[in-house]
Amino acid sequence: MASFYRKPSGIYYLSVTFQHNRIIRSLGTRSYETAKKLSPQIEKQILAELINGKESRRGEYLRFPALVKRYLSYKNHDWANSTLERYKTLLGNYVANGLPDNPTTKSMTIRVINSCNSWGYKYGFIAKPVKMEGGSKWETRDRVFTNSELKIIFAEMRDISFNSFVRFAYYTGARSGEIRSISRDNVLEGSLVVRGKTGRRYVKLNSQAIAILDRQESLWNYSRDFVSHKFKKEVRRLGIRNARFHDLRRTFGLNLIKQGMSIYKVSKLLGHKSVRTTEQHYAPLLTVDIEDFTL
């Protein structure tokens, strides 16, 4: 006997009973139509487990590369486009080359692998959830640009449109994924409506950012990899070492705090979920600016 129902959270679950044994499994969706389509396949998997036990399905379990494809193509994750792109990159690189050397990227990759495995077990694609250790071990990046470095970047970056994009990113403090593909419809009076890591939010446009938009005939439509690789190539040419595009955002926040803007306002401009997140990012950077003192 099988039936699916919705919990107070809105997620649909499938309940299958056979000879007084019952298994309940989440269908991972709030859509009735999607739950209805998923139920027959999941019901067969659950019945096989109830009748023969999980081990009898060992030959049907997916290898990790195939599981990754299923995981990334699943339509009900409710991910932002930037999240999907990031997961594709991390999992794709892992399947091709194994874990990366960079501690932060390695930690991110492990967390995504664990999420993929948990999802695969939940839907019966693997025999058991395999958890890799090390997902919480990362080094916080604290690179910021000096004023002289910013002047060089803004003055010497050759590609005019990309130069404008880089300056717009700095003047707004926005994430790459929030601004690399926007239209005029996103632009309101004094703000920009974007959807990024934390969902839909408003990005404040100061006079410098507005001036850039006014001069742009067409707005940008860049891919994540293009922005990352193009920026690294340009700063290397300019002799600026250990630089990444996201460092512009970190520099934006630090410079505003140094100018005397409250941590609360900076947190709102960055789109952080809480002031605590902002404090965690910037407290180590501000230590070096504490005035001299004696004991």
Which helices and strands appear, and what pairs or packs with what?
Elements (H helix, E strand, L loop, with lengths): L1 E5 L5 E7 L2 E6 L5 H21 L11 H10 L7 H17 L5 H20 L24 H10 L3 H13 L3 H4 L7 E2 L2 E6 L2 E6 L2 H9 L8 H14 L9 H12 L4 H8 L4 H12 L9
Descriptors for this entry?
51% helix, 295 residues, mainly alpha, hpI Integrase, Chain A, elongated, 12 helices, 3 domains
Overall structural domain count: 3
Query: What's the count of strands?
Result: 6
Listing every helix as H and every strand as E from the N terminus to the C terminus, the arrangement reads EEEHHHHHHHEEEHHHHH
Tell me about the largest β-sheet: 3 strands, antiparallel
- N-C termini distance: 76 Å
If you compute it from the alpha carbons, what radius of gyration comes out, rounded to the nearest whole angstrom? Answer: 24 Å
Structural class: mainly alpha
Oligomer, anyone?
single chain
Unreliable stretches, pLDDT < 50, 5 or more residues?
none
Q: What is the CATH fold-level name of the largest domain?
A: hpI Integrase, Chain A
CATH architecture of the largest domain: Orthogonal Bundle
Please work out how many helical segments DSSP would assign: 12
* Overall pLDDT: 86
What share of the residues lie within helices?
A: 40-55%
